[in-house]
Specification:
The protein is built from 18 helices and six strands. 52% of the residues lie in helices and 7% in strands. The protein has a three-stranded antiparallel β-sheet with strand order 1-2-3. Strands 4-5-6 form a three-stranded antiparallel β-sheet. It folds into three domains: 62 residues; 218 residues, Citrate Synthase, domain 1, CATH 1.10.580.10; 111 residues, Cytochrome p450-Terp, domain 2. By secondary structure, it is mostly helical. Carboxymethyl coenzyme *A binds next to α17.
Length: 429
């Protein structure tokens, strides 16, 4: 017998169905709540609200579990390529060799940007944060591919938009970066691998040989996989809600990029490295900064700590911490902030404030140290997150569209003035 929940309001009992997911998580289906009772639910920050049913990513925050389409993140991060994982997220299954090859070839064909898009980059001062440039350039793609804004576009047209986005985002990301450094833009070398081509566009100099360090390319591959999807987080929910209005994929992804930029979300990776540098230049007294983070009168938060859903450990952080040690030693990089980060982590993990609130290092805590070892400047860290998250955003947008989900439109509890009469300006006090 299917389960139900009874809710008693003003002495009257109402019955609501229980929805159960494939991993046993349960929800009360309140779709008819307002019609039946006149009440709505209030859940600021959506802490207990399921916005959708999704078959893409499973996450158990209590157990520290993360799986894409059923495959554990640990296996994907150590064995798969980013394009393979992207295919899995977007199309639902791991690709065969032939499917992956076809996906790669299609992506390779679209890595170049329309020459006119250069003007978008030219329009920004070099002080522009690459995340702002990234979202603007992605938005501008609607102008070059107007077919993408048709909400009734064919499946083939949509698939072409997906491939274009996967192909062009690394080029846009690299150009945003080079533009911010006043460096000449490098055209893609599509025959290189996805990560290798990105590194080439980032770091190569015109008319000079450029050797791609396989350690760097491999590290990038792992980081992109770890960021590839994370179910209904802030930026993904943004992508879905924008997409629910039948906005184009480019517009929805541009909105997701803007949401990701926030320091409480993906922007935390830049904040972490800047915080660690600040602690170092302040003498490295981690206890002082722990005390600041605990002080409710001090706005300082320990960046890279805490997570809305992980209340045990963030499995991505575990992989990244280990990768951080490996990569720094392989590259022969000695970054003193790594020691500060480890000390800070230990101090927090032994402090009742952090223990009671279940605050653990998240994906952003160690990723910045790796990005810096790979030669990236801190304002590019969130761009790297966006590059990794792209297939997840695409998969979620596609799922919403395939399920013909209705437009996202939350309700509210109004707390403003009740009705009052307009007062002409000359009579106002
Ligand atoms: N430093 C100090 N105190 C913290 C921190 C922190 N980093 N995070 C949470 N707290 C405290 C918070 O003050 C609150 O205390 P109290 O109960 O006394 O009021 C309690 O812990 C619960 O915090 P919350 O802000 O209500 O929790 P939330 O689920 O709304 O926020 C968060 C989650 C990630 C925004 C938050 O932990 C945070 O601001 N962390 C730092 C920013 C960060 O690292 N963000 C990256 C998240 S992972 C990447 C991604 O977005 O996917």
């Amino acid at each position: 017998m299917s389960k139900e929940v009874q809710i008693i309001i003003d002495g009257k009992t109402f019955h609501f169905p229980v929805i159960e997911g494939s991993e046993g998580e349960k929800a009360i289906d309140i779709a008819k709540l307002r019609d039946l009772t006149g009440y709505i639910t209030l859940d600021t920050g959506y802490k207990n609200t399921g916005a959708t049913k999704s078959a893409i990513t499973f996450l158990d925050g209590e157990q520290g579990v993360l799986r894409y389409r059923g495959y554990p993140i640990e296996q994907l991060a150590s064995k798969a390529s980013f394009l393979e994982v992207s295919y899995l997220l977007i199309y639902g299954e791991l690709p065969t060799l032939a499917q992956l090859e076809n996906f790669k070839i299609r992506i390779q064909k679209h890595t170049n940007l329309h020459e006119d898009i250069k003007k978008v980059f030219d329009g920004f001062p070099s002080s522009a944060h690459p995340m702002g440039v990234l979202s603007s350039a992605v938005s501008s793609l609607t102008a070059y591919y107007p077919g993408s804004i048709d909400p009734n576009a064919s499946e083939d047209e949509i698939d072409l938009t997906i491939v274009r986005l996967m192909a062009k985002l690394p080029t846009i990301a690299a150009w945003s970066y080079r533009n911010s450094k006043g460096m000449p833009l490098m055209y893609p070398k599509p025959k290189l691998g996805y990560c290798e081509n990105f590194l080439y566009m980032m770091f190569a100099q015109p008319n000079e040989d450029f050797d791609i360090d396989p350690v760097v390319a491999e590290a990038l591959n792992t980081l992109l996989i770890l960021h590839a999807d994370h179910e209904q987080n802030c930026s993904t929910s943004t992508v879905r809600i924008v997409g629910s209005a039948h906005a184009s994929l480019y517009s929805s992804i541009a909105a997701g990029i803007n949401a990701l930029w926030g320091p409480l979300h993906g922007g935390a990776n830049q904040e972490v490295i800047e915080m660690l540098d600040q602690i170092k230049s302040d003498g490295g007294d981690t206890q002082k900064w722990i005390a600041k983070a605990k002080d409710k009168n001090d706005p300082f938060r320990l960046m890279g700590f805490g997570h809305r859903v992980y209340k045990n450990f963030d499995p991505r952080a575990k992989i990244i911490k280990k990768a951080c040690d490996d990569i720094l030693s392989k590259l022969g990089v000695n970054d003193p902030v790594l020691e500060i980060a480890k000390e800070l982590e230990q101090a927090a993990l032994n402090d009742p404030y952090f223990v009671e609130r279940k605050l653990y290092p998240n994906v952003d805590f160690y990723s910045g140290i790796i990005y810096r070892a790979l030669g990236l400047k801190s304002d590019l860290f969130t761009v790297m997150f966006a590059l990794g998250r792209l297939p997840g955003w695409i998969a979620q947008w596609k799922e919403l569209r395939d399920a013909k989900e209705p437009i996202g439109r939350p309700r509210q509890i109004y707390t403003g003035h009740t009705t009052r009469e307009y007062i002409p300006i000359e009579k106002r006090k």
